[in-house]
Amino acid sequence: MYNFGVPVQLKTWFDYVLQAGRTFRYTASGPEGLVKGKRAILLIATGSVYSEGPTAKADFMVPHLKQLLAFIGITDVTVVRAEGLAFGPDAAKAGLEKAAAEIRTLKTA
């Protein structure tokens, strides 16, 4: 997360991927995603904790990414967070270990 949002490199990638006629199409009832039956896993790293508590309202990145993915038809989204990385070495280690443990539990398709 950079300044509560998506890093520019990831935003640029989505700008290339979201293409009318390729990953979505316009219909009479609105846009329709063409990338269906896919799963996305978001690996999120943050200095603070944004999954809960008072800072949760400042997490603009995860909802934005979920919206972009849903726009192209990907609605099966799992979020894995490595949080509190700026709270010192012990907190960073705990945050990374928690995320790694979550990753190990994910089932592959």
Note down, in words, how this protein is organized.
With 109 residues, the chain is of the alpha+beta class. The protein has one domain: Rossmann fold (3-Layer(aba) Sandwich), CATH 3.40.50. The protein contains 3 helices and 4 strands, in the order H-E-E-E-H-E-H. It has a two-stranded antiparallel sheet. Strands 3-4 form a two-stranded parallel sheet. The model has no long low-confidence stretch (mean pLDDT 94).
Question: What proportion of the residues form beta strands (DSSP E)?
Answer: 15-25%
In CATH, the architecture is 3-Layer(aba) Sandwich
Q: What low-confidence regions span 5 or more consecutive residues with pLDDT below 50?
A: none
Given this structure, which CATH class is correct? Alpha Beta
Based on DSSP secondary structure assignment, what is the total number of beta strands? 4
Largest pleated sheet: 2 strands, antiparallel
- Radius of gyration of CA atoms, rounded to a whole number: 16 Å
Proportion in helices = 25-40%
Protein name: Acyl carrier protein phosphodiesterase
Pfam family, one: Flavodoxin_2
Domain Flavodoxin-like fold: 1-105
InterPro entries: Flavodoxin_fold, Flavoprotein-like_sf, FMN-dep_NADH:Q_OxRdtase_AzoR1
